[in-house]
Structure formats: C-alpha cells, structure tokens
C-alpha cells in the first residue's frame, strides 16, 4: 500500500522546459519522448525538490530563475509529514507542497508547506519519500546504512525481534556506562564536595540549633539589655493604675473609674443608654485591675542578670556564624543540613555504586556480545537469500553473468572499553548491532566483487537497483521510485522483463520511469509524452497523458520511428496486450 504519492510537478524555466506540468498517478508512470525533448528534466526537477545541488546552468537562457514545485499526497502521521510539520510546514488538504527556486546567479531557496526552510531539510525528507536511480544521481540503497536497514526489513520478524532485544540491552549498557563514567571521572570533584558537606554538617550538628532559636534569643537579648527601663516603666504604670502607698494623696486610675461608675449607677434605672455606659465602666475597672496585677508581677519577675545577657549574646554569635554560611536563618540552616546529609550519604555510597555498575556493565557487555552474534547470524542467512534472489533477477535483465553478494563485516577495535566481544574479537558496536552491510556486484565472470555503486556502468547500475528494489519490494518503506534510463543497453526480451519488473514494483509503490523502450512503456499504467515546440522549448501543452490511439502512435514511433506504420502499430498493440495479460 502506497503511503504517499507524488501527484504533480510544475517546472518553469528549467533547461529546455519553459513552463510544464507533469501529472503523475499511483502505480507505474512512463515518461517518453524524442531524444533531447527534455525527459531527463523530470529527473533533474525531482532531484531539486529533494535537496539536490542547484546548478545555475540549469536555468533557461533569458530567465532570471528556474522554479520547480511538487505536490505529494501523504497521511498526516507519515514520517515525512511529521518531520515537515516539526519544521513549521502545513499540509494542504492532505498534501505536502514543496518548492525550489534556483536563480541564474546560483542562489537557491526552498519552501515546504508554505514555510521557507533550509535546503538541507528537503534532503532529510528525501529518504522517506523518493528513491532516485539515474545515470548520475543515485540515492537510497546505495548508502550502506540504508542497505542494512533494508536487509533487516527483508529478513522479517525474526531479525526484528532479535534487533529489539539487542536494542534494549544496548540502551541499558549505554546508560550504565554513562553513569559509571561520570562517577569515576568525577571522583576527585565528588570527594571534595563530600569533604565540604561533611564539615558543614558536623559544624551545624555541634552547635545543636533549635528551630526558631535565633528569633527567640534576639527577643531575649533585647529585653535583658533594657531591663532597668522596662522595670521603671512597669512600676510607674502600676502606680498610675493602682496607686502609690507612699503617696496617700495621689489619685489612681482605678479609683477614678470606680467613682464614675458609682455616679452613673445612681441614675441608671432612669435611662437604659446610661445604664449601658455604667456597665462598660465596670468592665473597664475590672480590666484596669487585671493589667495592674500583671504589671506588678512583670516588674517582680524581670531578670536583669548581666551574666544571662552575656550568655545569650554568645549563643547568638554562634548561630549568626551558621546563618552566614548555610542559610538566611536557623530554620534554613537546619533545612540545608538535612539536604546535605542526604547528599553526603549518596556521595559516600559511590564506591558501592561503582562496583555495582561495573558488574552490571560487564554482564551487559557479555549479553550484548551474544545478542550481536545472533543478529549477525540471522542477517547472514537473510543476506544469502537476498543475494540469490537479486542475482536471479539480473539474469532476466540482460546481465546473465552478474553476481550480487552481501558483505557483512564488523570493525575490530583494540580498545576493550569501546567494543564488545563477538566471535572472539572485540568489535565496534552501535544501536543496530556491530554489522556493516554492503551490497557487492561482480558484473562479469572473474571480475572482483565491488560495491554496487562502483561495480557497474550507469545503465547496469539502474538495472541492478531495479533488481534490488524488486526483491526488497514491500520491505523498503520508500513510497516512490524514479528510474532514469533503467533500460540502457537492453532490448528485446530483456526489455520486456524490465517492464514486467517495474510493473511488479508498482504494486506496492509509485514508480516513475524515463524510458526510450516501448517494451518498458507498454507496461506502464500511465504514459506521459514530452514534446518540444517549434522553437525548441517544452511548454505546458508539451507534457501530455497518452491514451488510446495516441498511446499506440507513440509506441509505434518508439518501435519503428514511424507513427503510422501498420506493422509498428500492430506490434504496439501486441505489446500493450502482452503487458496487460502478464503484469
């Protein structure tokens, strides 16, 4: 099932194309036309949309810039859609709009979903959108990392399960190693931190401060320092309220209030309001008596001992020292001591933690080595099956002597800390195992097997990649494939086989092919014709969808160079019938 579809590309002022729209569809689309008509500009345009290098020489002579716009339909939860939305792009009715502008001076701009984005972002999205296989532009499966991922998907659930177990152990080992490194490399810093905390905690503990003690001592010091003034004030206040025995003629406040109450009580029966005032005076008299009694007791109990004041000031100095170093007040000092004690216990337990982590790391490394070897074994078995299948495909694509193999190897390391033991060797490992996977091609008997990007000519490479993609069909998640000149150097039966395999690949993905072979074009679900106008340019009307009679005429031209040849027409009709019956 195709998860995204390149629906349309509009090309303006690019090479021979003045202004043209290429309408594509799901399935297999063939792009045909005379040599030099501009078919390859389809590949070039798509390359620009995918973040390819902007060459100002591509800009049409006389134009200020070349513009390529693409519309790709995709689900909102597709990986490319999510990445684009993270960059601020928006989907337009279920489609992602991409634009690339190249000026004649060499400047390049990219837009994604209505937002200006770095060109590099288009390259990131390319991996999840389109695989390009052309004469000079190869992407996707030529990269070893992609080859390993594709091989894992080809291998199926067995490798997926083993990879999941390996990944879990790898992540745990990474976390353990990170924590262990931190503990060991920062041992001196942590020892210094522990010494400082230990000194502080012991200093606070030796002082034995109590919550709120500093505030209480401050109030007591204030009271002791002004004891004489406080006692004198209390005595005078008591005399004013209760009278002074040494002054029999003095008038105290209590006597005055009592006299006022008696005067009102005599007439209170005649007016309720006055009776209420008399009652209030009675309350005042009682309150004055209570205050006078407390004043007498305060003066008697007031401690003016200078020795006690000295002891208080000494204790306050101790607490002030703690506050300056560890907190804003004694309560904050006690809180710091509690937190520091917990941190100190943690630091002092580092040796035990280091021993635990070291043991766990060694166990995980041993486990990872076993899981890595199992993963290698499974990949090797799948690689053999895959290589045999691709080699068989190449035999049908006019490369009968070519042989594809899959090299699975590991990079050894002398650093035991950075490697794991697999098969008695210390190898570099990563999140997907220790294996490096690379597809190799020996195109002829006796020729050495070389990486597929170096072991074949341009035309052969496209056919090799077609064979690889057909075998990987359904395993590789790229939804669109573009092949340029995949049929170079082949004809006859081999060309028919190329067309049949492209149609097979189109069952699970969108396939766009630039071709000059009618045997290939006949298998397409849709055929586009690129034509130049009399002035040598391709305009909007120069890219048309061929159907019925028009398609037969184009296939006839491709077969015999003559659209109206009866023999060519018959052959074209036969090709279409064969394609429909066998694809």
Describe this structure in words.
Keywords: ATP-binding, DNA damage, DNA repair, Nucleotide-binding. May be involved in recombinational repair of damaged DNA. Helices cover 54% and strands 17% of the residues. The protein has 583 residues and is α+β, with helices and mostly antiparallel strands. The protein has a six-stranded antiparallel beta sheet with strand order 2-1-4-5-6-7, covered by helices on one side. Strand 1 and strand 2 form a beta hairpin. Helix 2 runs antiparallel to helix 3, helix 4 (144-155) packs across helix 13 (350-396) and helix 11 (306-326) crosses helix 12. The radius of gyration is 46 Å and the shape is elongated.
Keywords:
583 residues, alpha+beta, Rossmann fold, six-stranded antiparallel sheet, six-stranded mixed sheet, elongated
């Amino acid at each position: 099932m195709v998860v995204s579809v390149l629906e349309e590309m509009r090309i303006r002022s690019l090479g021979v194309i003045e202004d043209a729209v290429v309408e594509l569809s799901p399935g297999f689309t063939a792009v045909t036309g005379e040599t030099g008509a501009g078919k390859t500009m389809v590949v070039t345009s798509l390359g620009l949309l995918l973040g390819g290098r902007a060459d100002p020489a591509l800009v049409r002579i006389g134009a200020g810039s070349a513009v390529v716009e693409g519309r790709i339909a995709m689900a909102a939860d597709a990986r490319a859609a999510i990445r684009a939305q993270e960059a601020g792009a928006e989907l337009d009715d279920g489609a992602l709009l991409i634009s690339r502008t190249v000026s004649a001076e060499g400047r390049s701009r990219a837009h994604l979903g209505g937002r200006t984005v770095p060109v590099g972002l288009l390259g990131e999205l390319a991996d999840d959108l389109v695989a390009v296989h052309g004469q000079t532009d190869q992407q996707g499966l030529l990269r070893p990392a992609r080859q390993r991922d594709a091989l894992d998907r080809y291998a199926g659930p067995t490798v997926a399960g083993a990879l999941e177990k390996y990944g879990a152990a790898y992540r745990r080992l990474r976390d353990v190693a990170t924590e262990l490194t931190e503990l060991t490399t920062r041992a001196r810093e942590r020892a210094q931190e522990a010494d400082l905390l230990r000194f502080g905690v012991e200093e606070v503990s030796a002082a034995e401060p109590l919550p709120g003690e500093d505030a209480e001592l401050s109030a007591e010091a204030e009271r002791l320092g002004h004891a004489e003034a406080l006692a004198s004030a209390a005595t005078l206040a008591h005399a004013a309220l209760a009278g002074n025995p040494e002054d029999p003629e003095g008038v105290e406040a209590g006597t005055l209030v009592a006299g006022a109450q008696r005067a009102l009580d005599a007439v209170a029966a005649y007016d309720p309001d006055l009776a209420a005032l008399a009652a209030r005076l009675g309350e005042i008299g009682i309150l004055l008596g209570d205050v006078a009694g407390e004043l007498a007791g305060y003066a008697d109990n007031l401690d003016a001992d200078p020795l006690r004041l000295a002891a208080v000031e000494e204790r306050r100095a101790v607490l002030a020292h703690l506050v300056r170093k560890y907190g804003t007040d004694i309560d904050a000092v006690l809180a710091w001591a509690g937190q520091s004690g917990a941190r100190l216990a943690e630091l002092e337990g580092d040796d035990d933690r280091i021993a635990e982590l070291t043991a766990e790391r060694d166990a995980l490394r041993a486990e990872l080595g076993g899981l890595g070897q199992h993963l290698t074994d499974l990949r090797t078995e799948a690689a053999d099956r895959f290589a045999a299948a691709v080699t068989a495909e190449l035999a049908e694509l006019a490369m009968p002597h070519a042989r594809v193999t899959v090299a699975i190897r590991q990079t050894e390391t002398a650093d035991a800390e950075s490697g794991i033991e697999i098969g008695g060797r210390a190898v570099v490992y990563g999140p997907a195992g220790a294996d490096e996977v690379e597809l190799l091609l020996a195109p002829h008997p006796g020729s050495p097997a070389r990486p597929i990007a170096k072991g074949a000519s341009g035309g052969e490479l496209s056919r090799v990649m077609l064979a690889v993609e057909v075998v990987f069909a359904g395993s590789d998640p790229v939804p669109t494939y573009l092949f340029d000149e995949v049929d170079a150097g082949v004809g006859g039966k081999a060309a028919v086989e190329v067309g049949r395999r492209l149609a097979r690949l189109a069952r699970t993905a969108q396939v766009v092919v630039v071709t000059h072979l009618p045997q290939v074009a006949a298998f397409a679900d849709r055929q586009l014709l690129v034509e130049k106008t009399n002035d040598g340019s391709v305009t909007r009307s120069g890219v048309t969808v061929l159907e019925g009679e028009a398609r037969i005429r184009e296939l006839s031209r491709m077969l015999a160079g003559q659209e109206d040849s009866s023999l060519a027409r018959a052959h074209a009709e036969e090709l279409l019938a064969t394609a429909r019956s066998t694809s």
